[in-house]
Amino acid sequence: MAQYEDITIDQGTDFAMELYLANKNGTVKNLANHSISAKLKKTYNSDSADTHDFISAISDSDGIVTLSLSNITTDALKAGRYVYDVELSFNDSNGDAIIERILEGKAFVTPSVTR
Prior knowledge:
Structural class: mainly beta
Order of helices and strands: EEEEEEEHEE
Strand content: over 45%
Shape: elongated
Radius of gyration: 15 Å
CATH topology: Immunoglobulin-like
Number of strands: 9
Distance between the termini: 39 Å
Number of helices: 1
CATH architecture: Sandwich
CATH superfamily: Immunoglobulins
Helix content: under 10%
């Protein structure tokens, strides 16, 4: 089950957040051969034209995932409420693709005065 966290994004600024991933026993999760996909939408049912992909970077041995949006992307967002989620993908020992939703929530875009 995914963790839930609301985030705030300031319109027209660079946005970044780090996720520290751990195994159930508390040890750092090794993210070698894993990939991350994260999206931001106005609503769960928004079409692809209203979908914004987070840029993701993975630090394999540290269990750290960085998600970001450029100031150009956030400037194009209308102020208001959005939804987002983050999925971790990898292949299990049988070679089967596994996708886990690790984080989800609402994103609040605050309006910019200086544009």
